[in-house]
Amino acid sequence: MGLWKKNIYRRYRRMGSVAVMAAALLLLPFARPVAAQNDPLNAPFEVVKFGENDTLRGVVGQYLRDPDLWPNVLKLNGIASPADLVPGTELKLPVKQVLAADTALIESLNAIQTATAEGARIFAPSEIGDAIENRDTALSRREDGDWRQVVSFAGAATDFANQALDIAIAQRDRSAEAVVSDVQGTVEGRAPAEPRWSGREMNDMLVEFERLRTLSGSTTQITFRDLSRLRLNPNSNATIQRMRSDPLTGGEVTKVSLVNGDFYALLNQLSDKTSFEIEVPGVETTTNSADFWIKNDASGARFVNYDEPDLEITQDGSKIMLGENEGVVLSGRGAERAEVLDSPLLVAPGLGQILYSTVATLDWGAFEGAEGYWLEVATDPGFNQMEVSEWGIRETTFETPELAPARYHWRVAVLDRLGLPGQWSKAQDFTVRVDRTPPFLTLLSPGPGIIASVPQIDILGATEPDAKLLLNGAPLEIGTDGSFVTIVPLAPGPNTIELKATDPAGNQSDRTQIVIFRPEASVDITLSDEIARVGDVLATRSNDLSVSGRTSALAGAGVAVRNAAGEVIVRTVIGANGDFRFTVPVDEAVRDYKIEVLAPSGRIEGNLDFTGVQDRTAPVIKLDLPLPKATGEAELEITGTVGDAVAAELDGRALDLADGRFATFLDLSPGVNGFDLVATDATGNVTIARLETLYDIEPPEVLSVDVRRPDGNAGPIQIEVVARDASGLRQAAPFVIEIGNNEREGFLRCDAASGVCRINLPPEPGNLRLIEVVIEDYAGNAAFE
Questions:
Q1: Each residue's pLDDT tens digit, 276-303
Q2: Radius of gyration over alpha carbons of the chain, in Å?
Q3: Which terminal CB of the chain, N or C, has fewer other CB atoms within 10 Å?
Q4: Are both 576 and 601 inside the same structural domain?
Q5: What is the pTM of this model?
């Protein structure tokens, strides 16, 4: 018999079952293939015809003893779906291969269980870990239908388990019978050979008669080779009195003395230990219970049994049996028994909750009759690696010290009036995670610079699935993949789309987008009144005409300006207040243009035609009547037109214009009066006309009057008057003359330049007498002689 067979035989012999041992020996041919021709993995597949009343799971379960292997059977036979399986189909079934694989798996499981029961997890953790890992791989290969790999990995698992078993048995022959499996805070020990206390660390070995103590705020756990555990709570002192074992029978005797303080025991009832005894000064216990708590201090000894088997307590020859969830206090007043309190309800954090703070706030429900609470926090579900152990908490909440990022388990027990801890609550776990990275957040739609023509827009994007998302301050639902989509109504004008994603750690990401909503509707267009005009034509002196105006379109709307040929020569956008401005070329000939306001879709929402011209011609001033050279009136009315002028001034005084006409009065001063009439058109062209008149209120000065017959009495009669005047003499001067007995009337002809007024009358006999002559100037002043 080979070594591996011997190991299997020895293992099953320890199990004490003839039937199991016999079964193992019968399976030995399948556990290790010795030759290719005898290898069941090389055996031909068994062929079964699929009947009309058969089911795939039924056939697979009947032949392979596992109906869940039907996908492997379909794959082996090249059948895509159970629907393709019809009566009469011949199925190839790997009967011997599955039997070999399952046999190897059973063997590996039994080997692992046997080694574990012998303490392999303590004394050979690496080997038993390799065994478990190889068996897990074998199980995964079984799901794939790779039977050779199943046998190979299961065989390796069995080998590692046998190694672990050998190591564990060898270790059990050593004097070290327990290890320190957890240390929180300061833990000290003192072996029999040590003169003083010294520190204890994880995995330190403990021997008989070794003392162990925990200081304030510290805990430790002792794990015995059968995986029984004792946890010493803060300020406790215990001694390992005795640790004995029989390697052949597996019988064990363990005795621990509790000097002071308290510990919690969780014993391994699956091992073959003989007994586990607890000694408190004056009190001894022997127990079949696997779950109990003991405390010893100056007030007495306290015991609580949480397990169904009894906890036997002996004091002064008297025995007390504690049943499940019973406690007792032994003091100078005797024994006081009590039913321990039930477990409280854990409230927060919830089961599996992730905390993004290194300090956890733990809350639980208040319990009637509670005098306090006992809280434990550990990094493992078995509470072997303790992080927090707090006794006597008065409130129903506790804030932990800072915790490293990890998964934690916590539980609470109620303390009654006797100081007995009740049943532990059902443990819950939470995870501490440090996260300072803002959540992923992307906004796929709308993009930047969007101008919408409909009153709503789709919002599409993605963020982290566990983030909380706000859209413009309101919660927005996120899909399981982190995507989000919704519709947002738009108001005319700019609309702000603001997204805020906050992950469970409080980190935040922001995204903001501006969407302009401009409805597709007819809009009004008005040109500015400040633009110069010639009639209805926009005008300028420059080669470029600056055009401005306002429209009812929303800000950001497009503007196109076309010439007479329909070509777009200018593009611009509407400003914040509906304003727009652009320039177009002009010359002396009138040009036609069109303004078009465009919707986001390109539709023309409004248009306006206008014409423009370059105007460099000054306005023409025309007086209805020219100013008199002279006047005797102190006020003179002047009227006329100024062409296309938009403004006119007379010596700096603005004139009122109506359709280019004006009318005003001149206030004259004696003497010459001069005035400047200025006309300005819309483009700034200017015409200046100089106006002058004489305000004369003095009659002409007569210098001489002469009536004579220069050629003798038979000759013609001559009348001559010499006068002068600033405004000049009128051309005619009326006179009356007596010739003989006859009167004659007429007009002298005046020469304004020389000031001589003269007339020659025909010859007429008689004496001459000038009765009257009137010399007038242009102002209407007259001198009578």
A1: 778 888 788 877 788 889 998 888 889 9
A2: 62
A3: N
A4: yes
A5: 0.45
